[in-house]
Amino acid sequence: MTAADSLSVWLRVRREADWQRAPALQPIPPDRDGFRCWCEGPVRRRDPIRAERLLAAHALAREDAARRTQLDFTLLAGWQREVLAVPEAPFRRSDAYAKAGRERYGLTPHTRADFDSRLHEATDPTIPLAARAARAYLDVAFFHPFTDGNARAALLTLVHVLAREEIVLPEVGPLQTTRYPDDPAGASDLATLIGVLNRRRH
After folding, report:
1. Could you tell me the end-to-end alpha-carbon distance of the chain, in angstroms, rounded to an integer?
2. Where are the extended beta strands (E) located within 45-140?
3. I need a labelling partner for 96 at 20 to 30 A (CA). Which of 2, 47, 104, 139 fits?
4. Which of 117, 175, 174, 178 is nearest to 143 (CA)?
5. Is residue 152 within 8 Å of residue 54, measured between CB atoms?
6. 122 secondary structure, DSSP code
7. What are the residues whose beta carbons fall under 8 Å from the beta carbon of 73, sequence distance 6 or more?
């Protein structure tokens, strides 16, 4: 039996989630950049080359945030080329699977355009920033645009959305837990967690 389309499930949850309940964020200078610290710590200990590639992609994402470059698949693909050290990072050409095949992310002729449309909403001022960052993270996770490295792409996207408004989280490790497309409470909890991390200082 073919698994249900988890992307369609996520898009329904995305519409129904109460994003307005997300906490407000404060642009207080952090004592450290959590993404860089994560790369220099656990990532580098596990794989120094992976750490360097992530740091290079992070630098691009922060530069694009400073320039307020429109967030879309093309921008993510530029970061992903650094992450994977490949000349091209095209949008996937077939359904994608995760969690040992239990989740299937469907592909239609409109999937890439739909993805760009959702990413453009990351600058919607009517939605709290923490919610926009969480939503963009989950969009990348469940649209699953790349054949590899989607979790890293999702985290870079979250960092970029926050950096556009001068928010830098002092740690990112707690963000990296398993997410499910049919979990509206989990989506809201991610936005809340961003708020908690924003208030945490080292």
Report:
1. 49
2. 96-98, 103-105
3. 47
4. 117
5. yes
6. G
7. 91, 112, 115, 116, 119, 145
Kindly state whether residue 1 falls inside one of the protein's structural domains: no
Let me know if residue 164 belongs to a domain: yes
34-86 residue pLDDT tens: 999 999 999 999 999 999 999 999 999 999 999 999 999 999 999 999 999 99
122 neighbors 53 (Cβ within 8 angstroms): no
Q: Residue 38 in contact with residue 32, Cβ under 8 Å?
A: no
Residue 56 maps to a domain: yes
Q: Report the predicted TM-score, pTM, of the whole model to 2 decimal places.
A: 0.95
When pLDDT is cut at 50, 70 and 90, the band that residue 164 belongs to is very high
Residue 202 pLDDT > 70: no
Q: Residue 49 has which token pair?
A: 């080359």
What is the token pair recorded at 157? 């996207």
Contacts of 47 (CB under 8 A, 6+ apart): none
Residue range(s) defining the domain that contains residue 105: 6-199
Query: What's the structural domain count of the chain?
Result: 1
- Only one residue has tokens 């398993």, namely 178
Asked if residue 110 belongs to a domain, the reply is yes
